């Protein structure tokens, strides 16, 4: 935990700011500049944290933080044991006291957006020094009787299987020869029961290793995932639920269903096999850096993907190289540190001049990407700012005081299918922020962006210039952004080329707790929009409405999400754990403007069992027209799917799909029909053909849809799809082109149609994807039509260049495009309406409205629908008719208990797969911004160090003079480089991390067992560096976490010194200007908090260990480091290690 260090005299100064602070209270006042004109701040964010007599926070005030410049106050209370069992939501006040403390901050709660809801979460803690949570109730009246419950027990005899490994000490390989069961009381058993009664039980051994995670389907059945370790405590096998019920784990079962891992003598993962895939191999250099990887498809071709680094460990180029076995390649790479350096002449490969040396593994076949740092490569286009008041551009002249040293400047990416390249360049201002980019595409055209940033780094204006090829006319997109007093986006304007009017895409309004409540979309006048989109939320912050389907008024679309309050209780029950119980929607189209409803049903694993369709208010409410019902195996593979549709005649819904899925492991082999059921061609074409796969688990053959073969590139992306004649299917060919970073750049669709005399003639449609600008060109019966720029996406839909119109999209909470409209001559015109089954197949009654032609095919989850009927998510193609992927999840190891082919863990109503790899990206933009700040600070220091070293050389300084001039700059620079390395470690970790921007004076890094996430809580950028360092200490085994409380364990003075050093390297003022070289354990013991209490050392409030300890420290060592714990630990076996304790979260190495 980091304490903000400020001069003690500052605590007693009055009138030192405009805030009117209470002079009789202890406090910490923080002001962050959000804008600055060079003389005075024009916009600030101010916070005051008040403390009680024991130095505990009791009230946090965000001064004038609401849209109407009112205070937001968070009350903090403690029970009689000093524990924080009630967590209050921040409450907006009726005005501002300019930082003065509030005697009753809850007085006006009922007049806030909270209304009469309960605004605090409540924890019931165990009456013991462990303070373990027994139950926890969330905010909101509906959750008052729906707590999350926690249980702490030991296993009973025979409850858990005991898998043992046989380890070969010569080959470092494991096997699983037998399986017995654990005897009673041999494992720790922790149970979490969520608000809806769904149970998760985790069993751990004495070393703290997770042995089993059990998810209860019902009171008797469960889905069990076992974790098996070898003699070196390395994870050797993961046995997912479907394999856990198999009597004998033979090699076939292991290969089809389990995760298998092998390590070398240096504890490096060198081989792994995921279920449904063949073996993958890894090769490392002497510095333990991953140099080469090979999957099964590359192995068949005798090729490896390689990565080369520079002397600073930065990736400089990648490619493909021919090679032999893993052992052979490791023997070549293992003895050396593989690094290349910048070179003025370099070498040429695949049509690209590469300005690096190629001394090691130089006989490679293909180069795929090249990265440049420090200096721009030859041929870089010059950038001259055109936006007024734009900052100066950072030069790459190393003699300049401010330069681009250490910054990533250019990235060249080759097309996988040919030798054409995309060249990307980045330009920075003098604060190290990217203000412009220039991308030369594979056709020779370009996309250039230029942005004006304000003091806080927010974009004020962006200009995008684009050409498909160099001879095209330039298209110019101009966007302007306006923000309120706390940098909430208020207005987003958009202009195409020299159009006479600037379109206002969005005008946002927020409530007093900063939730977006109204968005005026479209139009050209401030204060008015084509549509007013209104949003509503419940007390948990979950969206409940987009407009109102009960009362559309002038709205074209209304949407309501129900969690705890479904109306159709015959088909759905209230859900309190975040699952959605019911959704209503209505559109203003003349096609069918009845209110429509889906009621949802789930199993104990939160998997969707049914979406029951109805139309409240219609003549037949429960018409079941678009029902979708599913069953699953233990891994989440769909076993059966029933799908209904509106009848062509009569009133009874038509069963169009009654499908039975047949598998080998997780691979879908065939879709069958129940006996006596005929194939219904209006649904899925269940022709009962076999599916085919390659060794990477990619679907190669899908003859039910006419697909006879799919070829994949090394990223497992399809580059060629061929079809064979099938009933109701035209034959076609699809060809894709991708860059080596996975970005799709071209698609060619070839089919045949009959001409006017009845002859079959080829028809071709080519689509280009160029930085958001999408082009298409038709070749019909030998006639080539003009190539057209079709559209570019906007934040609220897209701009149609053919129509010269802005098209606006209504999207639901999943990003599904539900309704598209544009401004007509006299009224709004609906272009398209889309309704979807729960797993994404469109209802067959699609309304195309006034749309002429269909070249904008982005629909479910906002993804592009392909001619195959699949959606392109970027990393994989999704099959909505089958509710699963055709390719194994690239991040399957994060979700080992789920089938690697399952979509959104079979809960497509709550989750999306943004790119086909993970359920939800977390904090990435915030993380990238923080990393950019650390990088910028590092670069500033590097320039200062370079300048001093240059002066020392020019003036002939001796070592003493140089040291006096340098001070601690070099040490700070080294520390910042280590911080960036730590961030890279966290980025590549299989442990999930989250960010939490906090108010007050201190941050904290903690563990959340409900999400298995380590949360880095920080109050400012310097504090982030401090707390992030603790995250890195977890990765290295220096600290651990108590699973129940989430607090850190084994965090000693050495760990705190390291974190303060990292913080001081970034911002010396945050530690009172202390030199990084003077921060040590002795200095820590001098620190006092605002109440004067010692923070570190004997009796310190932080309770940090006095001596160095880690997860491998024994009880005896822990007692020495924590003398206050002697009485409670003296009866324990003094040789037991911390990681062997129950309830300890630590990093498995």
TrEMBL record:
Domain DUF6443 per the UniProt entry, residue ranges: 32-146
Signal peptide: 1-19
Keyword Signal (UniProt): yes
Pfam families assigned: DUF6443
Classification via NCBIfam families: Rhs_assc_core (TIGR03696)
Listed Gene3D superfamilies: RHS repeat-associated core
UniProtKB keywords: Signal
Species for this entry: Chryseobacterium geocarposphaerae
Protein name: RHS repeat-associated protein
